[in-house]
């Protein structure tokens, strides 16, 4: 009776819980790297505190402020792209591990039997 309860849980509720945990883990990884937000703000200036808003002054001062903003945008884009690429690699790896876990889940209860058969077959 206990074995039947374990097997029925394994192939129904247990599998559903694994799917929910897998989905949650992938969403957490996506949220952790904020890929959508980073793409949305890809070319915004990176931590620029010196020049904000309209610069009033000579042409030289305005040109320097514009150059500072452009350099800050390039640095921000490079850093954001690096984080996005790293996040995508982590997501792909997490997806691969999750797929292996989901596909291996139904085979796990029979793994000891496969081990016993393999051991007996090797002894002969």
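-> sequence recovered:
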């Amino acid at each position: 009776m206990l074995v039947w309860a374990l097997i029925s849980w394994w192939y129904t509720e247990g599998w559903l819980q694994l799917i929910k945990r897998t989905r949650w883990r992938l969403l957490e990884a996506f949220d952790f790297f904020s890929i959508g937000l980073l793409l949305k703000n890809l070319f915004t200036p990176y931590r620029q505190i010196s020049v904000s808003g309209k610069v009033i002054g000579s042409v030289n001062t305005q040109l320097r402020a514009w150059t500072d903003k452009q350099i800050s945008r390039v640095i921000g884009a490079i850093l954001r792209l690096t984080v996005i690429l790293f996040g995508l690699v982590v997501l792909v790896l997490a997806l691969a591990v999750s797929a292996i876990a989901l596909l291996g889940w139904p085979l796990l209860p029979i793994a000891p039997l496969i081990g016993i058969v393999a051991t007996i077959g090797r002894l002969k």
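The chain has one domain: 2-123.
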